[in-house]
Structure formats: structure tokens, C-alpha cells
Sequence to fold (158 residues):
Amino acid sequence: MGMKSLLAVGMLALVVASQAGAATQTIRVTSVTLAMSTHDAAPKGASKGDTVTYSDRLLNAGAQFGRKKGAKVGSDTGTLTYTSAHTAKFSGRAKLPGGTVILLGPVYTTSDGSIVVPVAGGTGKFSNVRGTLTVGPGKNHVLNTYRLIRTGIVPPVA
Fold:
């Protein structure tokens, strides 16, 4: 086996091993806009350097976190920065019961108008998570769906 083949087999083993210990979690909250500000850099209209800054209250879209539907369960803040007229990146965080989810990276829009943001990590109960946040279409009350994958889980000691 050549060096490239060994490297490929090694990488595949790491992926399989990490997926074997992975756990997934889906969190659905309604994001209620508290504040939003935009900065339109020249030229006028969507272009590189434009920013949109958000601050939202997060409410349970269904019973979770030991709280009923509609209960306040957190907040989020972040900045969307256009990298061109049609591309953007996001930097922000969502505070939820037990920790914080870090949102960071390039975003894309789906055919229904939703925006997908990468989850780059977290703190507390959300340590070692990766995944996505899908921000549904709409304006002031929007469904946010976090699809989280947690790796490196150590089983509890009996």
C-alpha cells in the first residue's frame, strides 16, 4: 500500500470511529427579533462588506429543556457579512439552557428561502458539537432548527 492509500485508510478509520461515538440532537426554537441593524457599504445594494447585525429572543417551538411551548429558553446575537453580492458568512452565538452554540462560517440559502449557518462548536452541554442552524423564511418570528452532532462522547461510569 502506498502512502496515499495508508493516509486514506487512516482518515476513513478516524471518521468511522468518530461517528460511532456521535450523538445527534435537534432543537427547534422560534426566534423573535429584538434588534436588527444594517450597514450598506458602497456600492448601494448587496455587496462585499455589507453587514446585518441581529439580536433575538429564543422561545420553545415545542416542549423541550423541561419547559413548555412558547417559554423563553435563550437568546442569540450575530453578524451576517456579505463576501460578495450573493455570498455571505456569519459569526454569532446562541445561548440556550446549559450552554452556548457557536455559529461561524459561510452561509447558504435553500430553495424555500431558509438560511443555513454552520455550527462550529459550543460550551457547556454543547461542547464538542458541530452541525447546522437552519433559519426559516420570514421576518420577525422565525423557526430556527439546530441539527447538532456531538462527537467524542464518553459513556457515564456505572
